[in-house]
Write a structure and sequence with these properties.
The complex is a heterodimer of chains A (402) and B (308). With 402 residues, chain A is an alpha/beta fold. Chain A folds into 2 domains: 3-188, Rossmann fold; 263-396, Rossmann fold (3-Layer(aba) Sandwich). Chain A has helices at residues 9-20, 34-45, 59-71, 82-87, 89-97, 122-125, 140-157, 182-188, 226-255, 280-294, 312-318, 339-348, 371-386; strands at 3-7, 24-26, 52-54, 76-80, 103-108, 133-136, 161-166, 175-179, 205-206, 215-216, 222-223, 263-266, 273-278, 299-304, 306-308, 324-329, 357-361, 395-396. The radius of gyration of chain A is 21 Å and the shape is globular. Helices cover 37% and strands 13% of the residues of chain B. Chain B has an 8-stranded mixed sheet with strand order 2-1-3-4-6-5-7-8, sandwiched between helices. The chains are: A alpha/beta (402), B alpha/beta (308). Chains A and B meet through helix 3, helix 5, strand 9 and strand 10 of A and strand 1, strand 2, helix 3 and helix 5 of B. Strand 9 (205-206) of chain A pairs parallel with strand 2 of chain B, so a sheet runs across the interface.
Amino acid sequence: MSDTRIITGNEAAALAVKLVEPNVIAAYPITPQTSLAEKLSTFVEGGELRAEYVRVEGEHSALTVCISASTVGARVFTATSSNGLLYMHEQIHWAAGSRLPIVMCCVNRGVGAPWSIFNDQQDSFSQRDTGWIQIYCRDNQEIIDTIIQAYRIAEAVYIPVMVCYDGFVLSHTMMPVEIPDYGKVREFLPPYKPSVDISPENPVTVNPVFFPWRRENAEGVLCDGYMEKRYKLQDALLKSTDTIEEVSTAYGQAFGRDHGGLLWEHMTDDAEIVIVGMGSIAAEATVAADSLRKEGIRAGVVGIRVFRPFPRKAIATALKKAKVIVVFEKCMSYGCDGGVSSDIKSALYGTGIEAPMHNYIAGLGGRDVKARELADAVKETITRIDSGTEENETTWLNCHTG
Amino acid sequence: MAQLPYGVALMQENIFKINDKEYILPGSRACQGCGLSLAYRYILKALRENTIVAIPPSCLCVLHGLYPTTSVTVPAINATFAGNAASASGIVAALNALNKTEITVLALTGDGGTYDMGIQSLSGAAERNTNFIFACYDNEAYMNTGTQRSGATPMGALTTTTPILTKREKKKDMLKIMEAHDLPYLATVSPAYPADLYDKFVKAKRIKGTRYIHIDIPCPPGWAYPAKDTVRVGKLAVETGIFVLCEIEDGKFRFTGRSETLAKKGKRLPVVQYVERQGRFRKMSIEQLNQLQSWVDSRWNEYMKRAE
């Protein structure tokens, strides 16, 4: 019998963490992640979850605790938002460079300055180039399912995974969520085995100084230099797309829900206008696409689930038949385009896809984005293209630029 | 080796009772005459195999060698500069969760990683009474990057970031800061007195909670004295009272080793005898020297009162 509850995104995340049974949790509270850190404290203090919970004095330490705990063989979890994530930045690189299967939730929030406690995706977007896998969730069901998948992915490829979901829009909004069965989760997720055994019997120095060139060890075997080490991270990230898809499929078979591996599509088969988004804005776009269809506009949606490694092939395949591509996104590469659209353009280069692409920056710092507004923006784009404008500058939706 | 009881009676120089196993093989990357390599050698003898060391980027990271070789035979984990105490907290949390509580966790951290950039994570870990030994190896400047001023640099010392005027501020009292965290055990040690150092680490190993040990580390290139004089300079620091060997256990202060003798006989040398052997003090003014002497005197008197 299924266990369905009406819960917030943060509660869904906390329940997922309880199901994966990490050995060590370290977190520092920050809005909108706070209720997740609190819920986990209640689980641990109430004896529902057997884990060491380190109530650190800041986010830099939160991830540092996870890094060293993971190094000595613990399954670990942390979560943060916004400036908390930025404060971790040094350690975000360190975790990926160390090839540790850490799972972290980023409850997406705009970054300062000026202060905003509300949602956009600039925080996790700004950590794009650190070597983590980034998965964006569109609803609370996907949050609980993705966290469980994230551990299986991370522990298979030894790359940390950031599970991102929109602050308040998901973290504090209640939705029906089916809670996966404990026994089935145990079957789906084997126990964590660290890649290096750190013990007195194996006295290694982990992450010492590497030189630019390769060097021989005591047995005369030529070992990696810094570049080889970093190349291996990139190589593993690119290959992890297969693992991510396999895990998504396996999860679908075990629990009856496959959220789509690298990306998901909504009515794209015959779509002329393809809307692309990431996270909850992509879910909102499906409502916009449905209303556009009622007006005779053949619209569909591609929701990017995995932003890193960027699913170049899957994106190109999904956009192959599009006549117009409209990207709505909540992050910006300042001085350039929206971050998602830049990556899509780069993925389409040389594929023969010549469809015009329009880019909307939407919902920064929590500005409300309604399906109707997305639909209107799509219609405006079509009008512009019909009048001969192939490309345009990035448009900031509902922003009074005067 | 026989198990040793611990108490005042055994707190004396006795080199023969020290564990004769070596944990640092010949060929470390430390500088000639490095006070840290001497201290580390005796620390590991005291803590033995069942130890994991947390290392920040510092002289210790260099001492451990370049991938893929190391001369140190205990497992060690490098972490970033500001986070060594947090890194050790992570090791402790994992070992607790995995029921491997027989392993000693040592965060061996330079003065930059303790006084300056690392003070937040250290204070946090100490406030949580994390079950580990945090040892600050204090060579009184950022030596790994070439002798830049730190919060631990004494007044009057030349560094590459106080190259003309010398450091004009006093050294931060880290022991006092750590004592304010209400720790079960605090101690100061010097590699110039290895048996005292050894005893305190053996003792610290048996205590639960956060243990803070402050190590005075003479540094030939940074302090500008000949490499052969490391032990002599370390002894002079104690003889002059600029560095005091002591323990604070459950709030109770006591002098130990050579400092205990000095406290009883009252014959400290003037600090000028310490200062004049080191090139880093060559631009020190008479006023600074007097200020340093009066700082040493007033702290000594404070300790004398506490020891009563």
